[in-house]
Predict the structure.
Amino acid sequence: MSFGPCGRKGIMVDSVMKKKGRANSLPEWATQITALREHLTINQAELARRMECSAMTISRWERGLLQPSAEHFIQLGNLGDKTEAWFFWEKAGIQPAKMVHALGGSSRKKRTEAPALELVHPATTGIDQKLPQVIGIPLLKGVVGTHGADGDHRSLRTMPVAEMIGVPASWCPNPAYTSLLRVKGHSMEPLIHQGDLIAVDSFQTERDQLCGKLVIVSSHGHGLSVSRLRRYDTLEMLEAENREYESFVLSKSGGLRVVGKVLWWIAGAP
């Protein structure tokens, strides 16, 4: 059987589209492993040698067929730069606060420090006005969902930055770990509305210290989501402000984990 030029072109386009579709359906950790290997300019066999596993295992990781163990995620993080390292370490369950504490307060592995912005002093009439320091916080190109509305499935550390927003330094106890995301959905109303910007501190993930607080959680099925963390005896629940929406039990077996604390939000943000 033969094909004319248009037929061959159609087959090639269809093949490319299928490959793109498969890439888009891969778990983020799979694409990050491939990106790490390409950044290191090594093939799967060499990565397997460094990881002390088989090339077939690397292939299965990159195709999303097998998720690495916590130990392997730590090893992958040790091979990458700062951004890559934190992505893989967090997948292994390592919390930023605990890692910094273990390093004796070192900021070697922190996300790039938030830059200080130039202060603009208003005209005064001889009054010495002292303005607070202003720092730049990244507004990420991603959304955080609510109950019933899926959020972004990427890690906070791998989302691209749309722009930098200047805010008072006193608003951000951990500026190097703070970022802004736009909210999608209505389950947190009337407190937080769709389209609002929320500030997320990914350094604060200790659940014992976040009971009653607004948190950002990540799940395999629904991506990033904002909820209020509650504890009833030994049961931890993720609750919406609007009681018409279902609450969820926070458990590792369900693929849910806290990735940050909500510091504040900007209502009606453009």
Remarks:
- The beta strands are 134-144, 161-168, 178-183, 197-201, 214-219, 223-232, 235-239, 248-249, 257-266.
- The chain has two domains: 14-94, 134-266.
- Residues 5-25 form the longest helix (21 residues).
- The chain has seven helices and nine strands.
